[in-house]
């Protein structure tokens, strides 16, 4: 009946951060691996180079997910949300 629940701010909710991080990592790994496989099928004949393109795609996905997750845990704002800088203008008479 009278239970008290604490409301935790978004910047301190580690469970939500880990969930978002895991989801982002898996999605980027899978999508970039598929892109590498598709590119390997189109561009290369040798099985070794096809596997190398899949590995390269997976590495790109893991790297981009790592970068985004480190921003998420450090609390820095995302890329596109930087505050605009003030531009000084001169009034002409």
Automatic annotation (TrEMBL):
It is a single-pass membrane protein. It comes from Vicia faba (Broad bean). PANTHER family: MICOS COMPLEX SUBUNIT MIC10. One of its GO terms (cellular component) is MICOS complex. Belongs to the MICOS complex subunit Mic10 family. It is found in: Mitochondrion inner membrane. This is MICOS complex subunit Mic10. Keywords: Membrane, Mitochondrion, Mitochondrion inner membrane, Transmembrane, Transmembrane helix. Component of the MICOS complex, a large protein complex of the mitochondrial inner membrane that plays crucial roles in the maintenance of crista junctions, inner membrane architecture, and formation of contact sites to the outer membrane.
């Amino acid at each position: 009946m009278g239970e008290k629940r604490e409301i935790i701010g978004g910047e301190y909710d580690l469970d939500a951060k880990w969930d978002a991080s895991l989801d982002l990592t898996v999605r980027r790994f899978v999508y970039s691996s598929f892109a590498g496989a598709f590119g390997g099928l189109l561009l290369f004949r040798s099985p070794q180079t096809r596997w190398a393109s899949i590995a390269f795609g997976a590495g790109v996905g893991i790297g981009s997910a790592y970068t985004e997750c480190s921003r998420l845990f450090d609390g820095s704002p995302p890329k596109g949300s930087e505050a605009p800088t003030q531009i000084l203008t001169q009034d002409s008479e």
